[in-house]
Design goal:
2 helices; rod-shaped; mainly alpha
Length: 40
């Protein structure tokens, strides 16, 4: 199977996207963070 740098880019991008989604969900679930944002 041919392996290209583009495949590596897509795979790493997918991993980064997964991390962002997890972080965003954690922030949304974190009430104290929401409180700080609302007070600004």
């Amino acid at each position: 199977m041919h392996h290209s740098p583009h495949d590596d880019y897509l795979q790493s991008f997918a991993q980064i996207k997964d991390e962002l989604v997890k972080n965003t969900e954690y922030i949304i679930e974190n009430d104290s963070f929401n409180g700080r944002v609302m007070s600004c």
